[in-house]
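#struct-pred

JT: dropping the chains for the assembly here, can someone run the whole complex?
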Amino acid sequence: MHHDSSGFIRSRLHEAAPHDAEHGGSRRVRTEPTDEELMLATGRGDLHAFEQLVLRHQQSAWNAAYRFLGDAAGAEDLVQEAFLRILDAAERYEPTALFRTYLLRVLTRLCLDYARKRCPLVTSKLPDRPDGGPTPEQQIIQRDRDLAIQAALNALPPNQRLAAVLRYFDGLSGAEIAAAMGVTTKAVERLLARARDAMEPRLAHLLEE
Amino acid sequence: MHCEDVKLKLDAYVLGDLAEDVRCEVDLHLTDCPACRQALGRTRKLTALLGNAKTPPVPRRLARRIMAAARGRKAPAWSPIHWWKAVSAPLRAAAAAVMAVGLLTGIMMGVGTLPANVQAGTQVSQADLLRDYNLDFLGEAPSGTLVKSYFTLLASPGEKER
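RK: done, full complex below.
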């Protein structure tokens, strides 16, 4: 098997118009392959297809992992491990669900495993953001707010935290969270309700602003 | 719909993630229940607060790091099994034929070079083997030594019985 062939990606490039009179040359239009097509290509050993998937979905995975752990280094490790597990299983992949749901399902398992093995989370700092916009005072206020939010998340039991992270930071619907966590939609509603009950008193000072 | 049911739906209500009929039921309940309206207000504030929180951007190195690990993991370590799976069926058949011919040739050559007594089916004694391999000088070792005892044992296993 040729693990690094990019034939699939190249095959998605085609000539849309043979001649563009205005620009005096041919115009190439790229038809973006779907996630599922990229996964199938990855299963055939196409690492360029896999790279496309990484670039498309790293943000979503990062949001979930970072907010779940509250720790950038740990989040990087978990996101990498999730993508590598998907790569390892790519030959057996069958497109029965959206790739994003599949990725988040792998990631949620890793997050819950991580939480089981790890001591309770303590939020002492968040990484600095290269965010030059706000004034120093605004930055301090924003930073305090982020710390309080992360502390409230960290205080939740792992499954409630995961549901809240997927809902509020990844914007998943109840059905998507249920698919990612392998539970029913009703269970997700209960997890989110409990998570809200637990977070509200901790964030009361911010909610009253 | 009861307050407990509505409470479970508030999050999806705020995010517009409810089916139309369920949403109507929640609306109906909210018009008559001040406690649930308060809970709805708190849920809205919490959703807005969390929604406005900024997660740090994805580290630039993350995708590179993942791809480096992926290439390392997928580096094709050569093995006969992988090779066998990777090549086409005609090539596999040709390779199998070559291996079979090689094996057969080896067997034929091996049979041709066996000592005549083996080819004739006669048994070879240990003494013959020592002579064939030029080890019979071991018999000249002084008597009583370990080498001499070992040679005696090897050269004439039948003599002990006599």
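JT: nice. Chain B is about 70% helix and 0% strand. Chain B touches chain A through 37 residues (CB under 8 Å).
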